[in-house]
Amino acid sequence: MFTAFKRVIKSGWQSFRRNGGLSVATVFIMLMVIFLITSLYLLGGVTQFLIADLEEKVDISVYFKEDSSESNILKVKDEVAKIPEVKEIEYISKEEILDRFSQRYKDNQLLMESLQELGMNPFLPSLNIKAWQASQYGSVANFLENNSLKNIIEKVDYHERKPIIEKLSQITSNVNRVGLIFSITLAIVAVLVAFNTIRLAIYNLREEISIMRLVGASNWFIRGPFIIQGAIAGLVSAVISSLIVFAVCYFLSPKLEIVIPGFHLFNYLISNYLIVILGQFAIGVILGVFSSVIAIRRYLQV
Amino acid sequence: MIKFQTVTKIYPFNTIALDNVSFEVQPKEFISIVGKSGSGKTTLLKLLMAEEKPTRGRIFFEDQDIHKMKKSRLPRLRRKIGTVFQDYKLLPSKTAFENIAYVMEVMGASDKEIERDVPEVLEVVGLADKANNFPLQLSGGERQRVAIARALIHRPEVILADEPTGNLDPYNTSDIIKLLLRINELGTTVILATHNKGIINSLGRRVITLENGKVVRDEEKGKFRL
């Protein structure tokens, strides 16, 4: 048993080496496939980052009536904080918002003068709410409008922002959906190409397979070396593709950061390196082995 | 040991390759099958190795109907048969040594036995110095001798030889026939398909003559007559 296993591996490695041209072609095709799938994965990372970045910029504010007490506002705040969709909530008092306003516009004489003229604080205390996803603001606004303390709420600016928020949530879900369909289609095409390459390679060896059958080799003894060859091709392509991906990301990362500030492609890759590398090896080996097994089946009928 | 029972083989488009063929081969027999090209010699050997199925009739090997065997049992049957194919059927990506060793690997022989037996058999067929050549680097006659070496290396119970001397010069031919006779003396059944008149006449063994797929003569101590 062990001898047979050793022989299968040895013979697989031997034919991988001897059928040099064929092996190189197979490795090349599988390399493209693995590289493509990895790129799709990284592209997915970039889109997720962009979407998260956009969503980060969206929030809604709840303005309270002039005379509402701080304890009531904080009560609302605590209740809102309990909603699972809410990611962040911040209380901004009348004084604080005045401070911030004056800070920001201290060089704008006109504004400052009119504020002076007013002689009072025109701002309303507010809660600033951020949800996890753009699509969740509707339910948060809904909750606020049906709250027991709704009589102290002056207004929720959700309705003014609704078109923007809805548009954003539509865009993100569209980008996600299109991206997924696009990735799956490309991945299927790539897998089929690799499968066909291996099938052609084995088709070329059908004569040898029937000879092996005729001299009394069992099916596993014949199949084994082909499976090993497929696995080696997958492994080699995975190694090469890892090297290429890491190199490309390393050099592309600073350039990409100019276009998408705050996104470090290389760091993203490093923080996901286990999934990327294991994924590449898994794709390579599974593709090689699986294609060999399927392709060889029909020639074992002799 | 081997029994053909009213075997008929018809290929597509109504080509009758074998027509109602029956005969029996005893253990340790040396039997020649003669006939013109297309008379059915190769088909007969193919059916015996279960490479093809008969259209009608049954073929027994050691009392087992080989065409009723499970596919997974065929390798074991084939390991009892050593075949010299008319077109050699060597593995092009393996050297002469590896081609011969492959059969032993299939049988599960140890590396030590392979190291010992393969050079020996290469010596016997006169190719000791070509052990590391690939089939494409060998001449027709050399390939044929590798094929012969591969057929005997694992000491099978039966050797099927389909024109084993077709590409050999007269010296090599008589060497190979002497080799087959010696193997036969050691207890192996030999079935030799040929249309070499000289060989048949010098052998003086049983001869079955095929004509258009029919057995027209089956004689002990036969002569070559078409």
Short summary:
The complex is a heterodimer of chains A (302) and B (226). With 302 residues, chain A is α+β, with helices and mostly antiparallel strands.
Write structural notes for this entry.
The complex is a heterodimer of chains A (302) and B (226). Chain A is 74% helix and 7% strand. The two termini of chain A are 24 Å apart. Chain A is α+β, with helices and mostly antiparallel strands and 302 residues long. With 226 residues, chain B is of the alpha/beta class. In chain B, 34% of the residues lie in helices and 27% in strands. Chain B has 7 helices and 10 strands. The radius of gyration of chain B is 17 Å and the shape is globular. The A-B interface holds A 3-4, 7, 15, 18-19, 208, 211-219, 221, 301-302 and B 49, 51, 71-72, 74-79, 81, 83, 85, 89-93, 102-103, 105-108, 110-111, 150. Chain A: Belongs to the ABC-4 integral membrane protein family. FtsX subfamily. Chain A: Its main location: membrane.
List the defining traits of the structure above.
heterodimer; A: 302 residues; Alpha-Beta Plaits; 2 domains; four-stranded antiparallel β-sheet; 11 helices; elongated; B: 226 residues; Rossmann fold; 7 helices; 10 strands; ABC3_permease_C (chain A); cell division (chain A); FtsX (chain A); cell membrane (chain A)
